[in-house]
Amino acid sequence: MKENFFSIAFLKLSLKKSKYIVILLIIFIALYKNKGFNEFIEFNYVEFFQEKPEYVHDDKFLWPRLIAHAGGGVADDESYTNSLQALNLNYDRGFRFFEVDIEWTRDNNLVLIHDWEESSKRLLGLDYSEGYYKRVCFKFGGVNINSVSLNKFNELKTTGKFRKLTFDDMADWLGNHKDAYIITDIKWKNEEALQKIKDSYPGLIGQVIPQIYKIREFVPVKKIGYKRIILTLYIKNYSDEMIEKSLKLFHFDAVTMPLQRALGGLPERIKNEKMVMFAHTVNDEKVYKKLLDLGITGVYTDFLIPQKKY
After folding, report:
1. How many CB atoms lie within 10 A of CB 1?
2. Rounded to a whole number, what is the distance in angstroms from the first to the last CA of the chain?
């Protein structure tokens, strides 16, 4: 009888504890998904726990009006190639700043490709799996199951006339174009990739301008040794208030925002910080002129070209 009593009592206690655990779990998930709470935690972390690096503003550095997006367009309808042809053609057109997409291979090397999904299928003829792998890649740092090894990447034939590039190829190109800069778009293991680039090509670090996706990435990337850092907003959709506060705390060299944010109230809110601002992706001349009127410094573009006066 006593055993039954204690068993029932233990079961009730366990159920009661389980209920509280479930409640706490629900609260945790709600807070985790709450944008305001996340921004509060991140801002206080960077304000109180991250060392603020010394900042020297380079007033002489001339930011461009136009940045070639994904290496720039190579025909009226060909974009997102990150190819040698795109770099060469748009350099000849007058571009000196090139945004490029960089991905990890399966054996931890860096190559230029927008993604291991649509882009790798369109340019390399690779099939891909959807869904679960994204969570593995971006949440847990796992291997992208759609990626290939560096050797396999080099062996693959492109489906068009484009020459694909490893980062070794990119480094060679920069070495031969001393007045050119690349702006990195590394969506996965960004800090690790930037460290690898710096370790492998220390002489080129002045020609590489990293984009960071989270405000807390600024200090680690600055410590690697990069001179100029752009905060881009297309992945982490920070509130205007969070961006404004962060610009007072850190000296980002520029902020890049999606077109809709650029056409909204954010530029007006942060222009007093004398911030360099870019919008992406803009291929319409009228929109480009409107953005300049709003105080935007320049745009990432596929098809607008510096040689033409807008």
Report:
1. 5
2. 91
CA distance to 58, 180, 236, per residue, from 95 (Å): 21, 8, 28
Q: What is the DSSP letter of 78?
A: B
Give the predicted TM-score (pTM) of the model: 0.86
Q: Cα(262)–Cα(277) distance, rounded to whole angstroms?
A: 9
Question: Which residues partner with 98 through β-bridges?
Answer: 68, 182
Exposure class string for 152-174: b at 16+ Cβ within 10 A, else e: ebeeeeeeeebebbbbebbbebb
Mean pLDDT over the full length of the chain: 86
Output the pLDDT for position 243: 93
Report the candidate in 198, 164, 203, 172 with the shortest Cα–Cα distance to residue 184: 198
Contact (Cβ atoms closer than 8 angstroms) between residue 128 and residue 146: yes
- CA dist 39 and 233 (Å) reads 14
Alpha-carbon distance of 309 to 161, in angstroms, equals: 30
Q: How far apart are CA 208 and CA 171, in angstroms?
A: 10
CA dist 110 and 216 (Å) reads 23
How far apart (Å, rounded) are the C-alpha atoms in residues 236 and 148?
27
Q: Which tens digit of pLDDT belongs to each residue from 63-88?
A: 999 999 999 999 878 999 999 999 99
Bond preceding residue 166 cis, omega within 30 of 0 = no
In 3D, which of 159, 136, 155, 154 has the Cα closest to residue 146? 136
Residues 6+ apart with CB under 8 A from 32: 38
- In sequence order, which residues have a C-beta less than 8 Å from that of residue 184 and are 6 or more positions away? 99, 100, 102, 190, 193, 194, 197, 208, 209, 210, 211
Element (H, E) at 291: helix 285-293
